[in-house]
Specification:
Helix 10 packs across helix 11. The chain has a single domain, classed as TIM Barrel (Alpha-Beta Barrel). It is α/β, with parallel strands linked by helices. The two termini are 34 Å apart.
Length: 331
């Protein structure tokens, strides 16, 4: 398994991680036993990075990781665990709280669910637009000084915000959606992370199933709150995206790989600092995606992939207008 570090001088980790949002049943119902089987398979494959958040299933994802750690206590120092906080609800409304008090309280709760004294990476899930990011980076730095987190990170921020944060405290990682279906990070974020030594943690690297051999069908999409209103999964965009990705599935088959594995290999080919974190509670799907970590693509391979899925091929935005409340747009 290829390896990297979480930021300059940060803890070593695999260049492929487990995205644990799916442990909370985000796309499909999952059991603790199934999720533990995925984590066991990850360790067997040399995957050492586990990425979650406090809001995934309102703590369920962290609890599942915690019970797995409790059953495998010797593995705690062999893995890097990341979690996030800042999303909360007040008076029925979703708000972003980047105050030190809120972040520390949420981190303490996460540590209890995870059954550990520290996390290796603690992200701010969404920026509070009313609080300078330099202040937020400083707040996160306080948690590092207290030993509750080894490194800090941010989710869905602009390259300019990353530079401002780094002026206050080293930033180990920025999490952003990045795949053959969502390539906007190439307009500055991939490059800025590389320049600063910051890991780019790529979530949804298989396009929320569009880049797999078995995309979610309309019946399944209709039962998933997030996807049933997502522009890419609504008609006529859904049918156009299924048709548009068919040549990619055919190419993967021709190359002898699962489509999901080839999609992962493409993401990893974008830089040694890029860490895809596909999410699944299915052992079979995990075996497909983890294959991508062992695929070394040539420039000819990449050209073939980008010929069938050129920049801008996807129909529809990746978020609804409401879901865009929080992520920073920079291009």
């Amino acid at each position: 398994m290829k390896t990297t570090t979480l930021g300059p001088g940060g803890p070593p980790c695999s260049r492929f991680g487990v995205g644990a949002m799916s442990f909370a049943g985000f796309y499909n119902e999952t059991s603790e036993t199934e999720c533990h089987a995925v984590l066991d398979a990850a360790m067997a494959a040399g995957v050492t990075h586990i990425d979650t958040a406090n809001v995934y299933g309102m703590g369920r994802s962290e609890q599942i990781i915690g019970t797995w750690l409790a059953a495998n206590p010797s593995l705690r120092h062999d893995v890097t665990i990341a979690t996030k906080a800042a999303l909360t609800r007040r008076d029925g409304a979703r708000v972003f709280d980047n105050s030190l008090q809120h972040l520390e309280e949420e981190l303490d709760n996460s540590l209890e669910r995870l059954g550990t004294d520290y996390v290796d990476l603690f992200y701010v899930h969404r920026l509070d637009a009313n609080r300078p990011i330099e202040e937020v980076a400083g707040n996160l730095g306080e948690l590092v000084l207290k030993g509750k987190a080894r490194t800090i990170g941010f989710s869905e921020i602009a390259p300019t915000s990353l530079r401002r944060a780094v002026s206050e405290h080293p930033v180990a990682a920025v999490q952003s959606e990045y795949s053959l279906a969502t390539r906007y990070p190439e307009l500055g974020l991939v490059q800025t992370c590389a320049e600063l030594g910051t890991a780019l943690v790529a979530f949804s690297p298989v396009g929320r199933s569009l880049l797999t051999d078995a995309p979610l069908d309309p019946k399944r999409v209709s039962k998933i709150d997030f996807l049933k209103t997502n522009p890419r999964f609504m008609e006529p965009n859904y049918s156009a995206n299924i048709a548009g990705t068919a040549p990619f599935r055919a190419l993967a088959a021709d190359m002898g790989f699962p489509a999901a594995g080839l999609a992962i290999a493409w993401v990893m080919a974008q830089g040694d600092h890029v860490i895809p974190i596909p999410g699944t509670g299915s052992l079979a799907h995990f075996k497909d995606v983890v294959r991508g970590a062992d695929i070394d693509l040539s420039q000819d391979d990449i050209a073939r992939i980008e010929t069938v899925l050129p920049v801008g091929w996807a129909h529809g935005d990746r978020y609804t207008a409401d879901q865009w409340n929080g992520p920073e747009k920079y291009c």
